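Olfactory receptor: structure tokens wanted.
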Amino acid sequence: MRPQVVDTRNGSTVTEFILVGFEQSSPSTRTLLFALFLTLYSLAMAMNGLIIFITWTDPRLNSPMYFFLGHLSLLDVCFITTTIPQMLIHLVIKNHTLTFASCLTQMYLVFGVGVAECILLAFMAYDRYVAICHPLSYAQIMSRQVCVRLVSTAWFFGLINGILLDYMTFRGPFCRDNHIENFFCEAPIVIALSCGDPQFSLRVIFADAIVVLLSPVVLIVISYARILASILGRNSSSGRGKTFSTCASHLTVVIFFYTSAMFSYMNPRSTHGPDKDKPFSLLYTIITPMCNPVIYSFRNKEMKGAMARALGRSSLSQAESV
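Answer:
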């Protein structure tokens, strides 16, 4: 059964939410935001698309690290596409309404892809641990079959978790208001609009966030603690520098993603407000997906070489077609 919003002001049933987003901004500010977010979205799509292409087609990047990186970029593409195009449309039109089905679907995709990315980042940390601490057994431990299973596990738990969180968000009727003070359907904000006591749903989502966010963090911390111990035990300073450089990209991405996600889903709602929610929502919905390929490509010579080869082939094919 599709949940409904009951408007207590006139007793009628409302079947849509209204995304407030940046509605209160001036026309010139909305125009500036549209140009900025369109540029960021285009850059994020182009860079992540390039990483997906080269990690799946370049034989020189045939290693577990790049296999995971390609799927991380795929998750980033899915993540930003569920929220940013809609926000761009709402910046140029006055109709900011969103049906229940659209809101539910968007929230499910945000949850599913976001949780999958949390788990995948933990698996990427484990991959770095095996590569650095067990280099002789790396090929056997991180075989292609194992990598496929790990990525499939991330996607599976993400999509299953999305069902639970969607149900907890839309389990009751809505009668307080239908205005969402954000640019997409974010669960804590939607739950706060429901009739009755929303605390049970909020507690379940908080508990789920502890498991989903902190469990991968524990694996990441353990992996990097062992990596650090292995690095400090080496005599070669050049080897230490190379290893630190390899791990720094992943750690930077983890810090960006987890900081914004924890603020959004593990803080009491009383400490939140539109002015605080929107910046953090923008951080993990568009800034982090855009920064991921930049962080990985700029600090990795193999990625730079693969990108140059891919862009070179593209330029050559265009010249031949002219």
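Residues 5-321 form a domain with the Rhopdopsin 7-helix transmembrane proteins fold (CATH 1.20.1070.10). The beta strands are 5-6, 13-14, 16-19, 97-99, 179-180.

Cheers.
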